[in-house]
Amino acid sequence: MAQVEVKQGIVSGRLAPDQYAHNFSDLHPPLDRHEAFVEADRCYFCYDAPCMNACPTSIDIPMFIREIATGNGMGAAETIFEQNILGGMCARVCPTEQLCEEACVREEAEGKPVRIGLLQRYATDMAMAEDRQFFQRAAATGKKIAVVGAGPAGLAAAHRLAVKGHDVVMFDARPKAGGLNEYGIASYKSTDQFAQAEVDYVTAIGGIDIINGKALGQDFTLPELQEQFDAVFLGMGLGGVNALRAENEDAEGVANAVDFIAELRQSGDLSALPVGRRVVVIGGGMTAVDAAVQSKLLGAEEVNIVYRRGKEQMSASEFEQDLAAAKGVTIRHWMAPKRVLCEGGRVTGVELAYTAMVDRRLQETGETLVLAADQIFKAIGQTLNGDGGGLELAGGKIAVDEFGRTSVPGVWAGGDCATGGDDLTVTAVAEGRDAAEHIHAALMAR
Amino acid sequence: MERAFKAGWGGVVWKTLGEEGPPVVNVNGPRYGAIFGADRRLLGLNNIELITDRSLQINLQEMKQVKMNWPNRALIASIMVPCEEEAWKAILPLVEETGADGIELNFGCPHGMSERGMGAAVGQVPEYIEMVVRWCKQYTRMPVITKLTPNITDVRKPARAAKAGGTDAVSLINTINSIVSVDLDLFAPNPTVAGKGTHGGYCGPAVKPIALNMVAEIARDPETHGLPISGIGGVTTWRDAAEFLALGAGNVQVCTAAMTYGFKIVEEMISGLGNWMDEKGHADLEAITGRAVRNVTDWQYLDLNYVAKARINQDLCISCGRCHIACEDTSHQAIMKEKDGKRHFEVMDDECVGCNLCVNVCPVDDCITLEAMAPGTVDERTGRIVTGDYANWTTHPNNPAAKAAEPAE
């Protein structure tokens, strides 16, 4: 990393101008043709393949890899998109080391799984570069379906519904579609405006209108949608952010990690994006890692992730934790924020309490530590915006059954806003797709 | 040749001299095609090259020089001239004059030269082989090695003919007629020369099994047993060389492997063969040469009372399931995929016929093995006790031509 200029406070331009592009380039450069062939050759084409069973969208992984190996890249892309129309993004952001690649028998055999994610990217990139579409819409059904939230769940649902011949209108609160793919993941995982390219690729099927800047509860209500549409799918994610519940939480310099990540993703000039000299990120998930690593890449001198439990409980994958460590981020376990320290309303540090499990309850030990900081990011989880508007909730999320049905007839939900998922893009895709199948079945049975 | 000798090769076959006059011409486009394994590992190569396209005089001068520089290495001249006594009579003294240690009669090349009545066109007619070998023995004092083509139905016939003509040895196999692949844009065979292709000669690791069988056939044929054999066909490692020796070859020739990796591979072959012989206590090549020949027999003499079952080592198993699906779809449905509700692969002895397919498709070395059942145990598939007594097809009750038992040799 380039020399860090010692500038106090939250300032921009900490790096040499040419350093930004390098720091935020593709985390995993794509495989070229030769690399893809060599990697594809490693696949054993397992029977009832464990990788496929580990994939939330059940992509036929051995088949698409075999198709790559035989020079049939388009066939591979079709195999992937049949199950997961957002296969391109999932190839980039899936924690493969916890899913398909963890299940790969080569992981068992030699500790080196077939690089399934990169192979998936190879095939999907190839098809998307040629704008090759694999699906045709069925005859028009005359049914109209509202999809709220144009993120992974909504896009997957909209595409499947469009394939079935329904017309879809998507509403999204943000100026651009894509949801967390566009606003919520680290830049180095989705370079070159990939999220928007993917939205265009998915909607190219036709029959999908996207209306941006419209939020449920603000610009329209659920009953209004029910009145205008034959069915509603809710996939608006979690718009709220959990509070630290620590003293001085609203001091200048304390921000939501998700906002920082979104701002960074939308920034046209990273050198103009301010970041603290000493950054503390509170939380243990992917968002915490994305915010911490990107702070470091923007030139922060010292970045700490503080998590109140141990390494094993972190929801960030082992790979993400290693990535953070490799980029110079320090992860401190068993510590919880007690008080934000500030001078003149500005953050100067954070007082942390050491924690431990006592009688199966997380408790402070009484010892404390002060970390100097001029910027603190909160990454302790997101919440559903609003009260659910009459929908039954469970654990702060919209309660759904195995088909994605909510407590209100005619309304389905999936992705992060609904129960049952694990906050992964790929799971949201699976839920959106499967809810669409059920919506279709329900509408056509009428 | 100099580089090969410096790398440690014991001898070279200088391939292939034609008769005096304007030399042959080769195509100026692609001459080779290949098939590949994983990571473009070259498994099979074919060629449409002809014999040397340099003049006979230059070849002879160079051979003489090389032989002078390396007097203790073998130099064999490969020769292909028309099936006329005068042609052979003319070239043999010229070759002899170089100091070459012997000649190899190229009766094998299946492409190009065979259209002109040479190469495989001779090797496919035992009478011609015998005739030419006889001429060579008549017109030169040099030892004669007759190189055989595999493009025949029974390799013993040309070997017998070569022996009848007085050959000192046979070498085999030459390349196999092949179209290595088809260019699906041009709709033409590879290698494609200006839109057309022709069959070539196939060689490399892919042909080794064919070569081993043919070497063994000659080695165990009572009419040619004891005839020196030079083994050729896909020899790439010391292990390949050892296998050819075990089946009766006195030495081996290597071409494709050197073409793929360069001459340096001989270092591995020398050290590998030496280490294996030391490890197994084989004092010299005599100890291994031909040692497997007596174990090559006809199917009818195989022991039908021998019973083996596949065994999957669960500690080594990586649960890829290939053994299961191979057995399930194309063999005897003898490998379970689940046990106690969990993914688990295990052989069911009451279905296993011991076919070895699972062993061959398993990606993990030694994970699945075929184990002989001990005499006295019961084969669950047939319900019969394994006797341990040898019995073959010749005496089997299902054989309408059954007769009294014959030994395996």
Walk me through the topology.
The complex is a heterodimer of chains A (446) and B (409).
Chain A: H1 19-23, H2 33-41, H3 50-54, H4 61-69, H5 73-83, H6 87-93, H7 100-103, H8 105-110, H9 116-129, E1 144-148, H10 152-163, E2 167-172, H11 180-183, H12 194-203, E3 208-212, H13 222-228, E4 231-234, E5 240-241, E6 254-256, H14 257-266, E7 278-282, H15 286-297, E8 302-306, H16 318-326, E9 330-332, E10 335-343, E11 346-358, E12 361-372, E13 375-378, E14 382-383, E15 393-394, E16 397-398, E17 411-413, H17 425-445
Parallel strand pairs in A: 1-2, 1-4, 2-3, 4-17, 6-13, 7-8, 7-13, 8-9
Antiparallel strand pairs in A: 5-14, 10-11, 11-12, 15-16
Helix pairs in contact in A: 2-4, 4-5, 4-9, 5-9, 6-9, 10-17, 14-15, 15-16
Chain B: H1 2-7, E1 11-17, E2 32-36, E3 42-47, H2 56-69, E4 74-79, H3 85-96, E5 102-106, H4 120-123, H5 126-139, E6 144-147, H6 156-165, E7 169-172, E8 176-178, E9 181-183, E10 188-190, E11 200-203, H7 208-220, E12 229-232, H8 238-246, E13 251-253, H9 256-261, H10 265-280, E14 308-312, H11 322-330, E15 335-339, E16 342-347, H12 357-361, E17 368-372, E18 378-379, E19 384-385
Parallel strand pairs in B: 1-4, 4-5, 5-6, 6-7, 7-12, 12-13
Antiparallel strand pairs in B: 2-3, 3-11, 8-11, 9-10, 14-17, 15-16, 18-19
Describe it for me?
The complex is a heterodimer of chains A (446) and B (409). Chain A is an alpha/beta fold. Chain A contains 17 helices and 17 strands. Chain A folds into three domains: 33-129, Orthogonal Bundle (Fumarate Reductase Iron-sulfur Protein, Chain B, domain 2); 144-239 and 384-445, FAD/NAD(P)-binding domain (3-Layer(bba) Sandwich), CATH 3.50.50; 241-378, FAD/NAD(P)-binding domain (3-Layer(bba) Sandwich), CATH 3.50.50.60. Chain A has a five-stranded parallel beta sheet with strand order 3-2-1-4-17, sandwiched between helices. Chain B is of the alpha/beta class and 409 residues long. Chain B has two domains: 2-295, TIM Barrel; 299-395, 2-Layer Sandwich (Alpha-Beta Plaits). Chain B has twelve helices and 19 strands. Chain B has helices spanning 2-7, 56-69, 85-96, 120-123, 126-139, 156-165, 208-220, 238-246, 256-261, 265-280, 322-330, 357-361; strands at residues 11-17, 32-36, 42-47, 74-79, 102-106, 144-147, 169-172, 176-178, 181-183, 188-190, 200-203, 229-232, 251-253, 308-312, 335-339, 342-347, 368-372, 378-379, 384-385. In chain B, the strands form six sheets. Chain B has a seven-stranded parallel beta sheet with strand order 1-4-5-6-7-12-13, with helices on one face. Chain B has a four-stranded antiparallel beta sheet with strand order 2-3-11-8, with no helix packed on it. In chain B, strands 9-10 form a two-stranded antiparallel ribbon. In chain B, a hairpin with a 2-residue loop joins strand 15 (335-339) and strand 16. In chain B, helix 3 crosses helix 5 (126-139), helix 5 packs parallel to helix 6 and helix 8 packs across helix 10.
